[in-house]
Amino acid sequence: MLKAPIGILGGTFDPIHIGHLRPAIEARDTLELAEIRLIPNHIPPHRANPFCSSEQRLAMVRLAAAENRHFVVDERELKRDKPSYTIDTLIELRHELPDTPLCFLMGMDSLLSLPSWHRWQELLDYGHLVVSTRPGWQLDYPAGVAQLLTNHHTSDASALHRQLAGHIWLADNQPVELSATRLRALLEAGQDTRYLLPESVAHYIDQQGLYRANRR
Predict the structure, then answer these.
(1) The pTM of the whole model exceeds 0.70
(2) Residues 6+ apart with CB under 8 A from 187
(3) Do the Cβ atoms of 202 and 192 come closer than 8 Å?
(4) What's residue 138's pLDDT?
(5) CB-CB neighbours of 174 under 10 Å
(6) pLDDT by residue (tens digit) across 7-43?
(7) At what angle do helices 54-65 and 199-208 cross, to 10 degrees?
(8) Distance from C-alpha of 86 to C-alpha of 9, rounded to nearest angstrom
(9) Fewer CB near the terminus (10 Å): N or C of the chain?
């Protein structure tokens, strides 16, 4: 008997905001996930180095997680001295949770760029992919991704409970058009960012003087 699946949400979280959290909450509710693990990257393989330190980003993730009992903070990638590859994290979690389906949450932009990921063909050996839509993206899949969807897509949410790994589920959720880049620009300009990130995170950013124009 398999346990209820868990969601896994990795990211730089520089800072964490509703564009990360709202789709995760909807996925948890729709798929009846036991929890959502928030896993901040230490060295993101596909992005520039974060603006804030690992300690500051972890502090913000902890504050965000404290506001929802279904969020759990997982620090494993921050303890690595190498790039944060998703495949490594999924392999570790599979060993730790042998009876729990793993649902890796990602945006449509990440799915479209999946062939650039380290050992991307192996991801579905260890977990499911749950893909959130994002405004403005046309569903013109690269050949490798199109084939992956042909072989692994399911519209049956219960299938993610019956199997440890191997499915791709496209979330029919309410997209949130917000990026960390846009949010940092608003913060740098001193504009009002209420309702775009948890209040506790906003307070921490203000208290620490993060993302201000004169910070660097």
Answers:
(1) yes
(2) 193, 205, 210, 211, 212
(3) no
(4) 57
(5) 10
(6) 999 999 999 999 999 999 999 999 999 999 999 998 7
(7) 150
(8) 10
(9) N
- CB contact at 8 A, 85 and 43: no
Question: Where does the pLDDT of residue 74 fall: very low under 50, low under 70, confident under 90, or very high at 90 and above?
Answer: very high
Question: Read out DSSP for 87-153?
Answer: HHHHHHHHHH-TTS-EEEEEEHHHHHTGGGSTTGGGHHHH-EEEEE--TT------HHHHHHHHHHB
Going edge to edge, which strands form the sheet with 128-132?
Answer: 71-73, 36-40, 6-11, 102-107, 128-132, 168-171
What pLDDT does residue 135 have? 54
Rounded CA separation 178/196 (Å): 8
Please give the pLDDT value at position 42: 85
CB atoms within 10 A of CB 86: 26
Q: CA–CA separation, 23 vs 35, rounded Å?
A: 14
Mean pLDDT score, 141-170:
95
Q: Is the pLDDT of residue 84 over 70?
A: yes
How many of the other CB atoms lie within 10 Å of CB of 158?
Answer: 10
The C-alpha atoms of residue 150 and residue 129 are separated, in whole angstroms, by: 14
pLDDT at 216 (0 to 100):
46
Backbone angles phi, psi at 91, to 5 degrees: -65, -45
Which residues have C-beta within 8 Å of that of residue 46, sequence separation ≥ 6? Answer: 113, 116, 117
Within 8 A by CB and 6+ apart from 170, the residues are: 131, 133, 153, 155
